[in-house]
Design a protein that fits this description.
Layout lengths: L3 H15 L8 H10 L7 H8 L16 H15 L7 H22 L33 H6 L2 H60 L1
This protein binds zinc ion (ZN).
The site of zinc ion (ZN) has 7 residues, from helix 5.
Length: 213
């Protein structure tokens, strides 16, 4: 896995980049689930650490909970259980489900970019074979927190900072700049059309005024 912090931060970053919180009224709930959903696939490591479920098992680490099927299921579940009272229209409900599905899937995408462990069962429960991307620049993080802090914690965090967190911040920055440019453009267009209307009013007034004389 990539570290749990990185998975959750990517959820928040995707929410910021797409501006999905605008779909809902309960912003606090939206951000809590944006933080929690991308971390949930790694609950399977509890099975590996405490229940003895083998890594390569369908419910082993990077198995079913890392699949696209699980992400869609979680997206549906979160919206149905926690945003149902918002009375969202069909389109907004669909977009919100897609959003929670996407941020959960970012977990598996990041894991498939790591350089250790078994691959990801993207297509579980239909096909339990494991997959990695051909290019894997991310350092794999140990499952145990103890090992993480004692061994390579800092190396892993700096690796993720370079490959994941800084690019995410750059995307957020680009989004903010584009948004500001659009607001400025709209304000200028509005101002321009106001000026045109004003000039038209003035010339109409002058024309009719002269006519009366
Ligand atoms: Zn994982």
């Amino acid at each position: 896995m990539a570290t749990i912090f990185t998975h959750s931060l990517i959820g928040l970053a995707v929410g910021k980049i797409f501006g999905t919180s605008n779909l809902v009224i309960s912003k606090k709930r939206f951000w809590i689930f944006s933080f929690v959903c991308p971390a949930l696939p790694d609950t399977d490591s509890l099975g590996l650490l405490y229940l003895g479920i083998p890594y390569e098992h369908i419910f082993g680490h990077r198995g079913f909970t890392h699949s696209i099927f699980f992400s869609v299921f979680l997206g549906l579940l979160v919206v149905f259980l926690f945003f149902r009272k918002e009375n969202l229209n069909k389109l907004n409900s669909f977009l919100l489900i897609m959003y929670f599905t996407l941020i959960t899937t970012t977990h598996s995408i990041l894991d498939a970019l790591t350089n250790g462990g078994l691959g990801i069962a993207f297509f579980s429960p239909f096909d339990n074979s494991r997959h990695f991307f051909p290019y894997r620049p991310l350092e794999v993080s140990p499952l145990s927190i103890d090992k993480f802090f004692k061994e390579r914690g800092l190396d892993i965090l700096s690796n993720e900072l370079i490959w994941v967190l800084i690019p995410a911040l750059i995307f957020i920055f680009i989004k903010i700049v584009i948004k500001k440019m659009i607001v400025k453009y709209k304000a200028n267009t509005k101002d321009h059309s106001k000026r045109i209307n004003y000039n038209e009013d003035v010339s109409r007034h002058q024309f009719y005024g002269r006519d009366k004389n």
